[in-house]
Specification:
Length: 237
């Protein structure tokens, strides 16, 4: 669903079903029912508020922000979903950090192999800048992990859904322990599947057919924080 129009003070709702929703609707057995919706703000640049202040910045965002057309692909339709928080004094939100085996110094790339080093144990944890604790409403209890089902799997878990683009979605509960500032953690083991020579030829990097780059997206349901991680799969490792 997207909000369109900017010059006539009218609000137009462009509503579409995702591909998965259309699949359920096509059953035509009366089971299809919309029970909830989400709102996102990936089009909004909040730098405007920092530059000109909250009052003028809010007005400029409302009047001048171009809004994306509604998408039917659920994996790309809403990257930054809005959340509701009751604390009126909240000014900072937590983010997600990565640590574990094969993680580079930037905390955004994981190296893994296709022969011997076929699995990595990693931990995603909540962090917040220049604060000592995380608001209890923003402590994630559940995470959604999305990865390419052709190359990557989460050991010990079964995908809740695999879409037509072979994007697998896992719904995982947080670890029992928390971080030093009260944030939640998610420990999981990622592993490569049996990747064929022909797949390296097709999906390998243009400059290096022994390397496939894939991505994992992890989102906390309560905080709305997301993190995308590059997985570099080496054929000879």
């Amino acid at each position: 669903m997207g909000f369109l129009q900017a010059d006539s003070q009218n609000i137009i709702l462009d509503c579409v079903l995702t591909d998965n929703g259309r699949k359920f609707l096509s059953r035509n057995d009366g089971s299809f029912s919309i029970v909830k919706f989400a709102v996102s703000d990936e089009e909004v640049s909040y730098d405007t508020i920092q530059k000109v202040g909250r009052t003028i910045g809010k007005e400029r965002i409302e009047k001048l922000t171009p809004i994306f057309e509604a998408l039917t692909n659920g994996a790309y339709a809403q990257k930054y979903r809005c959340i509701s928080v009751s604390n009126p004094n909240l000014i900072k939100l937590p983010n997600l950090q990565l640590q574990g085996e094969g993680v580079d110094t930037t905390g955004t790339i994981i190296s893994i192999g296709n022969t011997t080093v076929k699995r990595r144990s990693i931990t995603i944890f909540q962090n917040i800048t220049n604060e000592q604790t995380i608001d209890v409403e923003l402590v994630d209890q559940t995470f959604i992990v999305e990865c390419h089902n052709l190359f990557i799997q989460i050991l010990g878990s079964t995908p809740d859904h695999i879409d037509s683009n072979q994007r697998a979605s896992y719904i995982l509960l947080r670890d029992a322990s928390t971080s030093s500032i009260g944030g939640s953690k998610l420990t999981l083991t990622i592993a490569t599947k049996a990747i064929l020579e022909s797949q390296f030829s097709i999906y390998g990097a243009r400059s290096n057919k022994n390397l496939i780059s894939s991505f994992i997206k992890i989102a906390g349901l309560q905080s709305g924080a997301t993190k995308e991680i590059e997985i570099q799969i080496t054929k000879t490792s």
